[in-house]
Protein 1
Amino acid sequence: MFSSRRRAVAVAAAACLVLLAPIQASVSAEPTATAAQDSAIYTVPNTDSQTRTEINRTGAQVLSVSAGVATVEATAAQAEQLRAAGFALREETKVAEALQQLSGTERVPGDFPPDDQGFHNYDEMVAELDATVSEHPDIAAKSSIGTSFEGRDIPVLKISDNVAQDEDEPEVLFNCNQHAREHLTTEMCLHIAQRFTDNYTDPAIKDVVDNREIWVIPVVNPDGSIYDVESGQYQGWRKNRQDTGTDLNRNWGYLWGCCGGSSDNPDAETYRGTAEWSAPETAAMRDFIDSRVVGGTQQIKAAIDFHTYSELVLWPFGHTFDDVTDGMTQEEYDRFARIGGEMAGSNGYTPQQSSDLYITDGDSLDWMWGQHRILAFTFEMYPAEGGGIDGFYPPDEVIQQETARNDGAVDILLREAGA
Ligand code: 0X9
Ligand code: CA
Ligand code: CA
Ligand code: CA
Ligand code: ZN
C-alpha cells in the first residue's frame, strides 16, 4: 500500500536526482563494503526451514517468507553461490535503489527523511523517556544498562508503583531495536512506555503497573540505528557499528555459534562476532538481565524482543528444529505454544517456533530461556510481506496502528508473568 505512494514520489522526483547526487555523496561518507547497499533482493520459491537455513549459511539473509517463497537479501557473490547450490533465485530489486526511493529526495542530516519524522531518532527517544519520567515520577524511572560500542547510553525505563523500590513483583522486559534498521520496534517500546504511564488512571492499567515491574529498552543498538538514518538517506543497516558490524542477535552466549545459524564472516549480515558477548550492547543486556537475579531467583519472568518484519510470534529454541531438547521439556514447549498462540490470536500474527523460520544460534531468545528460563518471545512486527528492504521502512502513518495492535499480546504476557 505505501510502496505506491513512495513510488509516485520517486517518479516525480526523478528529474531532480542529478542535482541531488553530489549532495548525497557528500553526506553519506565512509562507504561500507559490507552494507546492504551492495546487495539485491531476490525471491526463492519452495523453501522450508531447512533450506532457508542453508540460504542464510552463505551470509545472505532471509527477510520474509510467503507460502514458501523466501525474500532474500544477498550480495552478487552470495547469489552466485546459492545458484550454484541449485536455488532458483529471481532478482527483484537492487537494495541501494530501493533505499534511495524509500528515503525520498529531501535530506535531513542526522534525522529521518521529512516524510518519516514520526519516527523517534535516538535523541528524541531519550527526550521522550525523560518527559515520561518528569510527567510520572512516581511510576517511571530511567537508568542506563551500559554503553554502546561508540559510547552511547542504552537507556532502560522502569514502570511500576513505588518505582524507586525493588519490590517483590513479577518483572517483565520489553526490548527493541537490536537490529538497526528495524525502527518501528523503537516506536513499539515507546508506545508501551506511554501506555502504562499516561493511562495510569485506567483501573486495568493501574492493576498491571501496581503488580508488575516493567522494564522497557527502546534501543538496544543506538550506534546502528543512528548510522542507519544520519546521512538523511536510509542505509539498510542491521548490525552494530563495531568494525564491520556484529549481528547482535547472533552474539548472545547460549550455544553461541553452535549450529550453522550464524556466520563467521565479518562481512555477513549475520556475523556472530569474535566471541560470545563480544558486542558491548549484548554484554550490557546480559549484565542487566543477570542483575535481575535476586536471592538466586531471576525476577524477569517474561520478555518480548521486538523485531521487524513478517508479523510472527516466535518462541525458543532457534538453534534446533526439535521442540523438546536439552533445556526444553514437552510441558515447557507446550506452554510457549499455548501463550504464543494466544498472543497471535490477539494481534493476527502467525505463531511458530523460531527455528520454523530458520535456524539461529546466539539469539536473544535462546539465552533468555536457556540461561534464565524467561518466558521469552520474539515478535516480528508489521508488515507481513514487505517486498524486500521496503519492509523495514514503513511510513510513519502506520506507527499508531501497528504498535497499538500489540496491546492485547503485551497484556497477555504481563498476565502470564504472574502465573
Ligand atoms: O534473524 C533474526 O535475528 C530475526 N529476524 S530479523 O529479520 N528481525 O533479523 C529472527 C530471530 C528469531 N530466531 C530464529 N528465527 N531462529
Ligand atoms: Ca509520513
Ligand atoms: Ca512496584
Ligand atoms: Ca523486583
Ligand atoms: Zn531483527
Protein 2
Amino acid sequence: MQIIKDETAMQRLKNAYRIVALTGAGISAESGIPTFRGEEGLWKKLSPQELASFEAFIKNTAMVSEWYQHRREIIHHTQPNNGHYALKELQEIAPQFDLITQNVDGLHQRAGSTDVIELHGNIMENYCINCNQRYSQDEFDELYRHNPNHVPHCYCGGLIRPNVVWFGEALPEESIEKAYRVSQEADVFLSIGTSAQVSPASNLPLIAKQHNSYIIEVNTSRTAISDLVDLHLKGPSGEILPLLMDDYQHLINGAERFR
Ligand code: NAD
Ligand code: ZN
C-alpha cells in the first residue's frame, strides 16, 4: 500500500540528502511502554510530572526509585516494534540519516540503530548525585534488592539516581547541540510519536522548518505542531513507518509505480 501520495512529498523524499527523525514515547507505545500523556500514564495515581523531578526524588526517594524500577521492568520485557525497525532500515539506505529520540528505553538501539542522539538519557543507567559514580543496571539492582527501604546509596553515601533528564533539568549539552545542528541541515524531518509539548525537543521540527526542511509528522492524534507540518500521516507508527519505508525505497530506486 502506497502511503505517500502527495507529489511534493515524493520529490522531497526522493531528493533528500539528509533525513532526520525525532521520536517520542508514541513510537514505543506499540511495544507496550505507556506514554506519559496517554491513559496509562499514571502510576499509583501520580502523574509523571509529580514523579519525574529532582524535587520529587529528594522528597520521595523510595517512591521515585520504585517507579523507575517498575518502568525498567516493563521495558525489560518488551521488544522493538516495526516502527523502530523501519528507522533502522532508513539509516541503512538514506544518504545521511540522524535519529534523535526523547525516549529513555533504548529500543532504537535494540532494533539496531546506531549513533542515536538520546536527548533525555537512558533509564538503564544510574549515577551518584554526590560523586557522579556510574552504576550499571545490574549493580543498581543489587543495591536496590539489599536495601530494605529501596533507597540505593553510593559507597560515598550519596543517593543514586537514574541517568534521565527530569522536568526542569537541562539536556545533555552535546546531544542537544548535535540535535540542533542536524535539524538545521535536514532536507526531510520526521516527527514521530511525540506530542511536541516538551521543550527544547519540541523546537527541533520548527527549527528544521525555518531551514526549509519538509516536515512529515507521524502520530495517532493531532499535536501542537500538526498545523505547521507539511504532511501529517495519521496512524500508529508501527504501521505507518514500514509503509513509508517501502515508498521511500521505491522512490530512490525509481520504481515503476511512482512514474
Ligand atoms: P508524550 O507522552 O507527550 O506523547 C506521546 C505522543 O505519541 C502523543 O502525541 C500520542 O498521540 C502519540 N502516540 C501514541 N501512540 C502512538 C503510536 N502508536 N504511534 C504514533 N504516535 C503515537 O511523549 P513525548 O512527546 O515523548 O514526551 C514525553 C516525555 O516522556 C519525553 O521526554 C520522554 O523522555 C518521556 N517518556 C519516555 C518513554 C520511553 O522511553 N518509551 C515513555 C514515556 C515517557
Ligand atoms: Zn557517590
